[in-house]
């Protein structure tokens, strides 16, 4: 895309008379309040509320350092995405940039891979949400899963504003839970109340075998689960085509990454591990539940169950939203069935969202029929497919920066700190995480699935090009 093309593109946008209309036919219905919470909520999920117990038992207090380092990399990734979004804010986001800066095949792979990531995530999360419901009521899981899917599907077909409102309140529950836990722990440390008051101390961070009780090697091995906890943080990029005033709202949301990771992950773990020694935690048990029990708060398990239920529903909601947009972006570029391009009068991708929701329900049925290893293998692929989006973002930002610095493209108004060096470091870090996945027998199945999916996409693209040569063209400009 030359600078002349960019000028024409910008001029075309200026000609749009209705500021509520997005450049791709979408409605700009997501306000600053909603985008902020989508950005915050995307980084907080079951990986923290449930999965951190395994990380603590494996690395001890040094898990805090793992989250801090991984959080820095996530910040670099999000700033790289922000630079691209301010250059060209489009709903297709990652796949659009992949087509422009890497090639049409990369856009094809990225779009379909990100779609699959959210479909698989939706399958697992709606199943998990149904499981959480059995904590209070003896309801068949398939009934809860069906009800949740239908409700979220309906909400996503009413308006993009309703999607944003649901995400706002889902995220508010998670944020309130973490801040509440931090304040309670701070009160215990300073005032000494509750059953944990007599033993609570920040010295727990180093007096139970040291800060690295199992060695630095074990801490490194937790980086994969730490990075997985941050999957979906990039979702804010998909909202670009439907954000009110994206050039003001999106940078503000992205710049909240450092403090929200510092507070919600690093801060929360520091407080919890100061109140409860790390030796009290074990895999499969939420650190929040363990901390509540140590404090003598019997309602803790119910509170955490409600929070993880909202986290799972939030993930399903995000999956409904993003999959429809990805399918439409692929279709607009000739890389998916043309019927996915159709929008409702409210500017919503009806067919893409419907197909994706149906796939999620099929996943619930598969999990019901084969709840063992076969389904777990499919689910494990979500992790590597999610990281693929990060890799594409970083590569595209590097190529964009090199072109903009040479004057071939206009410079972004939101340039990433560290430039190509920060993105290069982040790519090296992700490569290290992938190597660690190969070493871990429980995680390496993700790597086995990736070549199979790549082969499927390669064959599909070969036949697509023969049938529709236009699909091999570079990204269309909205």
From TrEMBL:
Residues 35-468 form the Amino acid permease/ SLC12A domain. InterPro entries: AA-permease/SLC12A_dom, Amino_acid_permease_CS. Its main location: membrane. The keyword Nucleotide-binding does not apply. The chain crosses the membrane at residues 37-56, 62-81, 101-121, 141-163, 175-194, 214-236, 257-276, 296-316, 348-368, 374-398, 419-439, 445-464. It is found in: Cell membrane. Residues 1-23 are annotated as: Disordered. Keywords: Amino-acid transport, Cell membrane, Membrane, Transmembrane, Transmembrane helix, Transport. The keyword Transport applies. It is a multi-pass membrane protein. Residues 1-11 have a biased composition (Basic and acidic residues). Belongs to the amino acid-polyamine-organocation (APC) superfamily. Amino acid transporter (AAT) (TC 2.A.3.1) family. This is Amino acid permease. It comes from Streptomyces kunmingensis.
């Amino acid at each position: 895309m030359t600078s002349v093309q960019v000028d024409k593109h910008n001029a075309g946008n200026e000609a749009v008379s209705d500021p509520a209309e997005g450049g791709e036919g979408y409605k700009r219905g997501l306000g600053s309040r909603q985008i902020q919470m989508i950005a915050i909520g995307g980084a907080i999920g079951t990986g923290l509320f449930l999965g951190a117990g395994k990380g603590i038992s494996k690395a001890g207090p040094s898990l805090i350092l793992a989250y801090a380092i991984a959080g820095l990399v996530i910040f670099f990734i999000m700033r790289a995405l922000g630079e691209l979004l301010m250059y060209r804010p489009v709903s297709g986001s990652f796949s659009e940039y992949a087509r422009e800066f890497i090639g049409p095949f990369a856009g094809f792979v990225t779009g379909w891979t990100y779609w699959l990531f959210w479909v698989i995530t939706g399958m697992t999360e709606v199943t998990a949400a149904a499981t959480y419901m059995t904590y209070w009521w003896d309801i068949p899981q398939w009934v809860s899963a069906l009800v949740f899917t239908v409700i979220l599907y309906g909400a996503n077909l009413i308006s993009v504003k309703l999607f944003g409102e649901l995400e706002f309140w889902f995220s508010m529950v998670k944020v309130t839970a973490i801040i509440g836990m931090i304040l309670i722990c701070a009160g215990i440390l300073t005032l000494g109340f509750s059953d944990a008051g007599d033993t609570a101390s920040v010295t727990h961070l180093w007096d139970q075998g040291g800060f690295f009780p199992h060695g630095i090697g074990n801490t490194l091995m937790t980086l994969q689960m730490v990075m997985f906890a941050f999957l979906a943080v990039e979702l804010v990029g998909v909202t670009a085509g439907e954000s009110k005033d994206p050039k003001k709202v999106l940078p503000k949301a992205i710049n909240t990454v450092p403090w929200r990771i510092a507070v919600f992950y690093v801060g929360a773990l520091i407080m919890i591990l100061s109140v409860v020694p790390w030796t009290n935690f074990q895999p499969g048990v939420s650190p929040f539940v363990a901390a509540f029990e140590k404090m003598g708060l019997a309602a803790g398990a119910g509170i955490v169950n409600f929070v993880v239920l909202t986290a799972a529903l939030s993930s399903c909601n995000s999956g409904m939203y993003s999959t429809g947009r990805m399918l439409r972006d692929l279709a607009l570029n000739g890389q998916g069935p043309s019927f996915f391009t159709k929008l409702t009068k409210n500017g919503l991708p009806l067919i893409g969202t419907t197909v994706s929701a149906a796939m999620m329900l099929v996943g619930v049925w598969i999990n019901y029929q084969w709840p063992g290893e076969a389904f777990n293998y499919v689910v494990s692929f979500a992790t590597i497919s999610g990281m693929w989006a990060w890799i594409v973002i970083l590569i595209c930002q590097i190529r964009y920066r090199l072109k903009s610095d040479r004057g071939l493209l206009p410079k972004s108004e939101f340039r990433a700190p560290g430039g190509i060096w920060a993105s290069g470091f982040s790519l090296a870090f992700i490569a290290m995480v992938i190597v660690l996945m190969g070493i871990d027998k429980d995680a390496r199945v993700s790597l086995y699935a990736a070549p199979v999916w790549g082969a499927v996409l390669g064959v599909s693209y070969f036949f697509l090009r023969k049938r529709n040569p236009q699909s091999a063209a570079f990204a269309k400009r909205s």
